[in-house]
């Protein structure tokens, strides 16, 4: 694939994300598949896409400084991805980056646009070591240089204090380590570590996870179901249940897609049965595909909207997993587009949805049973504040302390797990274990 074609894929991907609110990982994989991208070009394209996304506000600030007037959306995408390469990448000479940007802009928006792109990029390139950028104050400078929208910055400062908020925001521009979870139906962890060799090591966060240098979905071991790709923090949900794995439980996952937690729980509690629910049929199909690949036989999938009560589920399950939709602030390292969508209203709305799902899910738990609540966010309104409200309104539930084995992550004083993305090189996450009390005699 030529550079111009590789950059066209970068352009197509970024345009979809910026203007059609697409998700970075899904969009990249779509264009990789459509264009038959080779591994080397995948790395090149991914670096520019994720780099441009993570630094979007900073790149826009540079562009605004060196351009006059409004820049059309298509041209803006080309300029931002090119400024990123000039500022942060040294694999391609600057003159070549500019030349490719001009060619691409002519192809996308016409010959006149090529002159415009050439002029702006050459001006930026001449001044790249001294851009003379101006800011209103130190807060604006921090937010722009770290490409963090001011509203998200204020949310984190209000909840965690200035220093911790800044550390969290700076961690967003790092990437979490590549994590996989071994499948005990096919292989032991020791055997998989031996197969993967020097490219793999044990996780210090989750006992069932392995850290590898590079993810490869074309690996025969992945295709044969020896492992599944799952972040270490996400894999802690199954480990946090902490019940006797030899027992037979009826387990329900109310918001299962894309299925990683359901699959993990089913493979860990092999004597139990699990119903994996989601309201989207196409997402249930993904779970079914992984069930087949991993050779798991104790899961059934069911189309079910977690915001609606299912009368056949009431008081019917020993363990109910409630991994609710969330704002996703905890996964910004790997999905940087999320940070540009966060507003107070968005968080407040989604926290209400979460509470509705939690209130529904409590009805499915047997007396003495477990209700697991988890999110991949770090906003307290979606996490501990939902739990505190639930406990206040449901006196027949109490918090159980989560005790992990072989993990650097320790529970808070109240027993919950609160994983912040600057403390560990994984996603931010929240997990609470609630137990439904037996009736007193």
UniProtKB/TrEMBL annotation:
GO biological process: methylation
Gene Ontology terms for molecular function: methyltransferase activity
Annotated residues for binding of S-adenosyl-L-methionine: 255-261, 278, 305, 323
Keyword set includes Isomerase: no
EC number, UniProt record: 2.1.1.176
Stretches that traverse the bilayer: none
Keywords assigned: Cytoplasm, Methyltransferase, RNA-binding, rRNA processing, S-adenosyl-L-methionine, Transferase
Subcellular location, record wording: Cytoplasm
Start and end residues of each SAM-dependent MTase RsmB/NOP-type domain: 154-437
Primary location class: cytoplasm
NCBIfam families: PRK14902.1, rsmB
Function statement: Specifically methylates the cytosine at position 967 (m5C967) of 16S rRNA.
Family from the record: Belongs to the class I-like SAM-binding methyltransferase superfamily. RsmB/NOP family.
Protein name per UniProt: 16S rRNA (cytosine(967)-C(5))-methyltransferase
Species assigned in the record: Gemella sanguinis
Gene that encodes the chain: rsmB
């Amino acid at each position: 694939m030529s550079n111009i074609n590789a950059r066209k894929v970068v352009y197509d991907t970024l345009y979809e994300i910026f203007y059609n609110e697409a998700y970075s990982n899904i969009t990249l994989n779509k264009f990789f598949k459509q264009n038959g991208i080779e591994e080397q070009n995948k790395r090149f394209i991914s670096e520019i896409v994720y780099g441009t996304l993570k630094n979007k506000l900073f790149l826009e600030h540079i562009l605004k400084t060196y351009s006059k007037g409004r820049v059309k959306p298509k041209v803006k995408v080309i300029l931002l991805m090119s400024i990123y390469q000039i500022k942060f990448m040294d694999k391609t000479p600057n003159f070549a980056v500019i030349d490719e940007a001009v060619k691409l802009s002519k192809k996308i928006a016409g010959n006149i646009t090529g002159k415009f792109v050439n002029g702006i990029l050459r001006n930026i390139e001449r001044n790249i070591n001294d851009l003379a950028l101006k800011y209103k104050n130190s807060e604006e400078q921090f937010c722009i240089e770290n490409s963090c929208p001011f509203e998200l910055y204020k949310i984190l400062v209000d909840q965690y204090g200035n220093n911790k908020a800044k550390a969290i925001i700076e961690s967003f521009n790092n990437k979490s380590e590549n994590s996989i979870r071994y499948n005990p139906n096919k292989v032991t962890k020791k055997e998989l570590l031996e197969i993967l060799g020097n490219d793999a090591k044990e996780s210090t966060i989750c006992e069932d996870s392995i850290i590898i240098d590079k993810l490869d979905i074309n690996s025969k071991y992945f295709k044969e179901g020896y492992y599944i790709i799952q972040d270490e923090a996400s894999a802690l949900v199954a480990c946090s249940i902490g019940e006797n794995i030899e027992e037979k439980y009826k387990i329900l996952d109310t918001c299962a897609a894309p299925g990683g937690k359901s699959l993990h729980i089913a493979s860990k509690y092999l004597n139990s049965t699990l119903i994996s629910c989601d309201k989207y049929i196409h997402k249930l199909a993904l779970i079914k595909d992984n069930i087949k690949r991993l050779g798991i036989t104790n899961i059934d999938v069911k189309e079910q909207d977690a915001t609606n009560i299912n009368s056949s589920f009431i008081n019917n399950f020993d363990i109910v997993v409630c991994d609710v939709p969330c704002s996703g602030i905890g996964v910004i390292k790997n999905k940087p587009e999320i940070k540009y969508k966060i507003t107070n209203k968005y968080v407040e709305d989604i926290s209400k949805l979460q509470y509705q799902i939690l209130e529904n899910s409590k009805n499915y738990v047997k007396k003495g049973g477990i209700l697991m609540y988890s999110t991949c966010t770090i906003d307290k309104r979606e996490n501990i504040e939902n739990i505190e409200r639930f406990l206040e309104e449901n006196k027949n539930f109490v918090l159980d302390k989560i005790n992990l084995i072989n993990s650097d992550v320790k529970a808070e004083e109240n027993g919950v797990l609160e994983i912040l993305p600057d403390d560990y090189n994984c996603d931010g996450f929240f997990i609470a274990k609630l137990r439904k009390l037996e009736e007193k005699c």
